[in-house]
Structures are given as C-alpha cells and as structure tokens.
Amino acid sequence: MKNKKLFKPLLIMVVMMGFCIHTRAQQNKLVVRMARLVIDSAQLDAYRAALQEHAETAVRVEPGVLNLYAVYEKNDPTQVTVFEIYASEEAYKSHLRSAHFIKYKTATRQMVKSLELIETVPIALATKMPHSNG
Description:
The protein contains four helices and four strands, in the order αβαββααβ. It is of the alpha+beta class.
C-alpha cells in the first residue's frame, strides 16, 4: 500500500524532470545573437522603417524566427542594437536566405556605417507582454 502512495508523486516528478530536460535541450538549440549597428544620422527614419518592416515580416512568416527586438539608444539614436532568437541554426540560415532579409540588407546597405555581430549563449530568456487597456 505504501508503494502505491509513492508511485503517483514519483511519476509526476519523473514527468516534470523530463519536461525540464526537454525544455533545456530545446534552449540549447537556440541561436541567440545581438547586432550592434551605427546608422547614418541623415538616414535614421528610413533605416527604422526598413528594420521595423523586416522584423515584423520575419516574425510573422518564419516559424524559426522566435524574437527580433530592435532598440536605439535614447541619447544617441544612431546606435542601434538588435536582439535575435532563432529556433535553431537551420532557422537562422534560412532567415539569411529569405526574401525579406535580402530586401532589408539591400535597402539599408548605405545606411549602416558599422555592424558588429555578437554570438551569445542564453542564461535566462523570459518575456511578459504588457496588458492592453483596450
């Protein structure tokens, strides 16, 4: 009788451990990159529009593009940082071949004064979407 009482909690623990291991394994496959860019100040509005269109399209149409966040520094809007999360290395490579990425790179080539790509390893990735008051 004692063994039956222990079986259910033990089963739940094993299932939860399997879930955590699976989640950690999935996270290890992620490609997480940062891009630091310096944009020509005379072309900031055009660059922002091109980047916004590109990011929204990539997240909407590419299943392997999980997140694309782009920000500029408040005190120097020519300094742009893009934080990208892809489901896998193949998803990242597929993104680089996509029509919208090629369109973005071609359109912004003369706007970007410098680009630094930074490979990263995730420690903690958490997101909370703000509530809408609508």
